[in-house]
Specification:
Blueprint lengths: L3 E4 L4 E4 L7 E6 L10 H19 L3 E6 L6 H10 L3 H18 L15 H13 L3 E4 L2 E4 L36 E6 L14 E3 L3 H11 L3 E7 L3 H16 L4 E7 L2 E3 L2 E2 L10 H7 L2 H8 L8 E3 L1 H24 L14 H10 L4 H21 L6 H21 L6 H16 L3 H16 L3 H13 L2 E6 L2 E6 L3
Parallel strand pairs: 3-4, 3-9, 9-10, 11-13
Antiparallel strand pairs: 1-2, 5-6, 6-7, 7-8, 11-12, 14-15
Helix pairs in contact: 2-3, 4-5, 4-6, 5-6, 8-9, 9-11, 9-13, 10-11, 11-12, 14-15
The chain binds one RNA strand through helix 1, helix 6, helix 9, helix 11 and helix 15.
RNA sequence: GGCGGCAUAGCCAAGUGGUAAGGCAGCGGCCUGCAAAGCCGUUAUCCAUCAGUUCGAAUCUGAUUGCCGCCUCCA
């Protein structure tokens, strides 16, 4: 197995080789907790959740750090607006974040530190930068001296002199150079603060990641991730801080996920098209949301729309139906003795090894489902030992792949029952009345009164209820949408 | 102005040198009392346009057009 990762730093896919054999240390920038998380956060978190799951499945021991930025201008402003203190505000949104992520079946990171828990670490890094002449104090704030750090711009591929600094934002007159950025920000009256050698204040945005990543992962570690928008200036600044302070290479592989558009438009506050996770998981099955988010390559943009979500929902249903079918066919599934050479799992891993190509991996998953359905279609009566073995191999692989993508985590029966309950609520129907009609139809069918049977079917269909006559009886489900 | 990305069927989307995965929708068929589900077949002589490299390109190179992102808080 050779995993190749597209490294933003080198603009190439590179063979992944961890710093310590068998271990992966990764750091992903988490949210600033001043508002509800949106579908864009979901993409980033789900993508890196899958990355971590895949590494673990490949046998690596993964240390995954994802931070919470819990002190920052936006938090201060929002808290003021709401008449809250910053601690309660950030706590509220951290809890909401967890709730959203649990709903999305996201596994917790190994460590989830908060900036405010590491003020000492942050100050130590700033102190080191001061000592090295890479930082300076000016008017109560401490700035990073970009001119003294060689290689500033290497991640984002831009040269300081090319950037029209201050073109869109007024340059802080206290900076020596427009590119310099704040490491420590002095507190204005009424703002939360921590004591420091430079006076009362709070950390700048970028420094927390340098401090916490070195604390938990070391000064050099394997993977650093986040949304594409963080490449500049956030990650560029992190590199400057960490490499400046520690004199060692910072993250070795940089992974950046693309944006989520809403109906082909950029999601932004001004357009008022923010899609919040808690609303999305109400409208669609959380695993459908994951399937949707993983249906494009992680670096490409993805378009959130009702149609795309609907399709993801249909796709998920098809997967559950296949698992359900296997479960009904097989009483139990022993570990397959000799799995096929080119099995699904191997093919899935090949896709994942190519820069976490989940879109291709999902294609392989469906390929497997079709093959499996074909096998089961062709089977009459009892399965031969050979077929049984094959089906078991498919079943195991499909669920294993589901385990990486974070889908198919429910028992099919639970999934379908849940869909029903939800559908009934949405359409304001009762299961009793539906089952009564199905029973009437059953009688009509026994009497070979096809006209009546079809009338009832049509009646139910108008109520968005779809029937499925199976050998064991009639199943029903609520039509999607 | 600088930097970067993308353009593949009706729609979504893989494929990045060896002759177009997969999903949704459509059509034909099998199955079914009829359906549904599932399966089979079919649906791009061709991958924005033009030129070039190559035995061979959607895949590499150059140009053109269109779209998008970043350079400001942002996943």
């Amino acid at each position: 197995m050779t995993l190749r990762i597209y490294n933003t730093l080198t603009h190439r896919k590179e063979i992944f080789a961890p710093l310590s054999p068998g271990r992966v240390r990764m750091y992903v920038c988490g949210p600033t907790v001043y508002d509800s998380s949106h579908i864009g956060h979901a993409r980033s978190v789900v993508v890196f959740d899958v990355v971590a799951r895949y590494f673990r499945a490949c046998g690596y021991e993964v240390t995954y750090v994802r931070n919470f930025t819990d002190i920052d201008d936006k938090i201060i402003n929002r808290a003021r607006e709401l008449g809250m203190d910053t601690v309660s505000l950030s706590e509220k949104y951290i809890q909401e974040f967890y709730k959203d992520m649990d709903a999305l079946n996201v596994q917790r990171a190994t460590l989830e530190p908060r900036a405010t828990q590491h003020i000492d670490d942050i100050q130590k890094v700033i102190q080191t930068l001061m000592e090295k002449g890479l930082a300076y104090e000016s008017g109560g704030d401490v700035f990073f001296r970009v001119s003294r750090f060689d290689g500033y711009g290497k991640l984002s591929g831009r040269k300081p002199e090319d950037m029209l600094a201050g073109a869109r934002v007024e340059v802080d007159q206290r900076k020596e150079n427009p590119m310099d950025f704040v490491l420590w920000k002095s507190a204005k009256p009424g703002e939360p603060f921590w004591d420091s050698p430079w006076g009362k204040g709070r950390p700048g945005w970028h420094i927390e990641c340098s401090a916490m990543s070195s604390r938990f992962l070391g000064e050099t570690f394997d993977i650093h991730g986040g949304g594409k928008d963080l490449i500049f200036p956030h990650h560029e600044n992190e590199i400057a801080q960490s490499e400046g302070a520690f004199g060692k290479p910072f993250a070795r592989y940089w992974i950046h996920n693309g944006f989520v558009n809403i109906n082909k438009e950029k999601m932004s506050k001004s357009l008022g098209n923010f899609v919040i996770i808690k609303d999305v998981v109400k409208a669609y099955h959380p695993e459908a949301v994951r399937l949707f988010l993983l249906s494009n390559h992680y670096r490409s943009p993805i378009d959130f729309s009702d149609q795309n979500m609907q399709e993801a929902g249909n796709a998920l249903e098809k997967l559950y139906a296949a698992v359900n079918r296997m479960d009904e066919t097989l009483e139990n599934c022993p570990e397959p003795s000799n799995p096929p050479e080119d099995d699904l799992w191997t093919r899935f891993c090949d896709a994942m090894d190519d820069d976490f190509n989940t879109a291709q991996g999902i294609g392989i998953l469906f390929d497997g489902v079709r093959t499996l359905n074909r096998i089961l279609d062709e089977q009459q009566g009892l399965l031969s030992e050979e077929t049984r073995n094959l089906v078991c191999s498919y079943r195991r692989d499909i669920l294993k792949i589901g385990g990486i993508l974070g889908i198919l985590s429910q028992a099919p029966a639970v999934y379908f029952e849940g869909k029903k309950t939800e559908g009934l609520e949405k359409k304001s129907l009762s299961a009793d009345s539906i089952e009564k009609l199905i029973n009437d139809r059953k009688q009509a069918r026994i009497n070979r009164n096809w006209a009546e049977a079809d009338r009832i079917r049509k009646l139910l269909e108008d109520m968005n209820v779809i029937l499925e006559d199976r050998p064991g009886g009639t199943l029903w489900k609520i039509k999607n949408s």
